[in-house]
Specification:
This protein is an alpha+beta fold. It has one domain (about 5-100). Helix content is about 25%, strand content about 40%. The chain has 3 helices and 5 strands; from the N terminus they run E-E-E-H-H-E-E-H. It has a 5-stranded antiparallel sheet with strand order 1-2-3-4-5. Strand 4 (about 75-85) and strand 5 (about 85-95) form a beta hairpin. The chain is globular. The N and C termini lie far apart (about 35 Å). Residues about 1-5 have low confidence and may be disordered.
Length: about 100
């Protein structure tokens, strides 16, 4: 399997194989609608899996919400992966500036 990147405006296209292309849509964690979209995706993707147990919504919002004191010294970027216009995955990148200064 080969991975190719192509940046076209705010959307990053990942070609995972010749038959499968996904677009990464950047979201903002400080926008409630974007955060809800990010957090609710796993519920939609795994709703028919009898072994999946949904995490507590309040805990997810507490950890990823902009009021978390961790984000005073860290950056976060959320993405939703889309295939054929449907959300199919999610990615979060979190970098702590205090940790990088300690190295």
């Amino acid at each position: 399997m080969e991975l190719y990147r192509a940046q076209t405006g705010p959307v990053l296209h990942l070609v995972v194989s010749l038959s499968s292309t996904a677009s990464l849509i950047p979201l903002r964690h400080d926008r409630p609608a974007d955060r809800r979209r990010f957090l609710n995706l796993s519920r939609r993707l795994y709703r028919h899996d009898p072994l999946w147990v949904a995490p507590l919504d309040s805990e997810l919002h507490r950890v990823l919400g902009p009021t978390n004191p961790f984000f005073a010294h860290a950056d976060i970027q959320l993405w939703i992966a889309q295939r054929e216009g449907r959300d199919c995955g999610r990615i979060a990148a979190i970098g702590g500036s205090l940790v990088s200064r300690m190295k």
